[in-house]
Amino acid sequence: LPAISELDDLVVVLVRPRNPLNIGAAARAMINFGTHRLRLVNPYAAGFREARSAVGAAALLKNAEEFITVAEAVADCSLVVGTTAVRDRALEHTVRQLNHEAGSEIRTRLKSGRVALLFGSEKIGLTNDDFSHCHWLLTIPTQPQQISMNLGQAVAVCLYQLAGSAPSELTDEKIDPASAGAIELITELLFESLQASGYVKPGTKAMFEKRTRRVMLRLNLQKLDAKILLGMVRQIAWKLRQDKS
Amino acid sequence: LPAISELDDLVVVLVRPRNPLNIGAAARAMINFGTHRLRLVNPYAAGFREARSAVGAAALLKNAEEFITVAEAVADCSLVVGTTAVRDRALEHTVRQLNHEAGSEIRTRLKSGRVALLFGSEKIGLTNDDFSHCHWLLTIPTQPQQISMNLGQAVAVCLYQLAGSAPSELTDEKIDPASAGAIELITELLFESLQASGYVKPGTKAMFEKRTRRVMLRLNLQKLDAKILLGMVRQIAWKLRQDKS
Predict the structure, then answer these.
(1) A153 to chain B: which residues are within 8 Å by CB?
(2) In Å, how far are A16, A20, A142, A150 from A46, measured between CA atoms?
(3) Which of A27, A66, A129, B186 is deepest in the core (most CB within 10 A)?
(4) How far is CA A167 from CA A148, B39, B129, in A?
(5) ipTM over 0.85
(6) How far apart are CA B140 and CA B86, in angstroms?
(7) Å from A32 to nearest chain B CA?
(8) What contacts B88, CB < 8 A, 6 or more positions away?
(9) A129-161: pLDDT as tens digits
């Protein structure tokens, strides 16, 4: 594996990728731009580790980690950014254009923790459920007549921009963001409590779960606050379980 | 074909591309970033026009032009930029890193004429002979352990940077650069004259031809000066031919 670079804590997550060639192309671009943490959520392609186009990326592919859910794949990351080609559709997330400023912000966040960059499958992209795990979304500025990019090319363009963006100077403010895994734990207990308390109407479970997760991510919780909050919701959930039985 | 964009006068030239998939990927990236002039020099792949991965790029591939030589492929361009992964080798050209500044310069030159961006074959890249047709070279800043990029990804990264770079304000200076074709004509006549006059030693023909071309390109000739110079070398070449017979 390559020496530790400034993108060492970047985690590239391919969600349900279909084509081994594209997985290989993504891996090759990662090597080109000095990042090596590849994670796959439910890949369709069993043979991806031998992907042909992965010149120089065999070791990276061999070390790629597989996960069943997005939540598990990003659990140790303190910033989760989803990529999307969609612009018109009313998204409930902040969508930012890939450019020097967005690159700088991600580079700054890499100073204090891991950042996950999510790419969806070739045909469908990321789903609303995947989006609910993201702090914000990133879009590559393309022509309106062809917004959808090839997966390997999208990964290459994002990593090129990240590698070329300098992090901004850290402010005095102490930044120690909670991991996505810690926030997911709070979200689960909070959602359980909301269900138990009758807040969630029948038939709206999936929608409310996504909404709860999104709200928790928007809080940009620091590690300490996440710990306090977890203690609170854990107690409430326990009490609601007791009352039920 | 897409509407005229700010990259309308950019010409993407693939020199001896081998893999139809890569040609298709390059075409797709061109559509993504709003450029549509694709030229191929001696493609190995006869079936490239049906390249599978070219989502949305069928019309662009159908309109791609084929040429036998680089000289013909860039004849109507007033700036010719070659891409290369090579850094260590002593190149006789100026090599610039792809970044906002290089992008801005190309965007500025696009205001006054066509610009050709050359990409070499997947295995070998551009040769010294191809380089001799270039005003300067461009390299994508990658990690030293893997400098070579996949062709389709290299095209995507370059076009992303060009699309995102604003042209600099034009100075008062009038810029009306000569085309590569006009400079090639001068080069050919000058080289013929140099041979006829005994300047070119036996066995050094190919080397001197490249050197002559490079010198002429470095002059950054304006259209008017190219016309005057062409008249001069044409007369000299004619006289030398007369003396010989």
Answers:
(1) 25, 28-29, 32, 152-153, 156
(2) 11, 8, 32, 20
(3) A27
(4) 28, 38, 40
(5) no
(6) 10
(7) 5
(8) none
(9) 999 999 999 999 998 888 889 999 999 999 999
